[in-house]
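Need residues for this backbone.
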């Protein structure tokens, strides 16, 4: 028995006789060579496996039962500084601001005196000769 989804011979479209003879006389060796470029690359097995693991992780998170969690108390290990520490820090900031904004024109001019001068070239040459 024929498949009910396949059309019968009388239902198929008719082909013009000149086109039919051209189809029958077709020789594949007369075709031009062409390179095939795959534009839609299928994912590798690794890509599919990675995607499956990601989906499994997401499903695990979405279906997680929060009823299994235990209640805990939060212990603050790094408390905020008290008022005294904040005041001390502000004092340091004022000191730094004072240094940054210091007016150098109020300084007195001084002369630098070398207490331990380096030896001259002649003294070095004399030591080399000795």
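Answer:
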């Amino acid at each position: 028995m024929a498949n009910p989804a396949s059309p019968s011979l009388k239902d198929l479209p008719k082909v013009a006789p000149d086109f039919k003879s051209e189809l029958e006389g077709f020789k594949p060796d007369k075709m031009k060579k062409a390179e095939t470029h795959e534009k839609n690359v299928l994912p590798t097995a690794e890509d599919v496996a990675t995607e499956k693991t990601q989906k499994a992780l997401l499903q695990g998170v979405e279906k997680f039962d929060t009823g299994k969690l235990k209640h805990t108390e939060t212990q603050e290990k790094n408390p905020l500084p008290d008022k005294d520490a904040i005041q001390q820090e502000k004092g340091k900031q004022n000191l730094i601001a004072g240094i940054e904004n210091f007016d150098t024109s109020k300084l007195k001019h001084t002369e630098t005196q070398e207490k331990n001068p380096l030896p001259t070239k002649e003294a070095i040459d004399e030591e080399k000769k000795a």
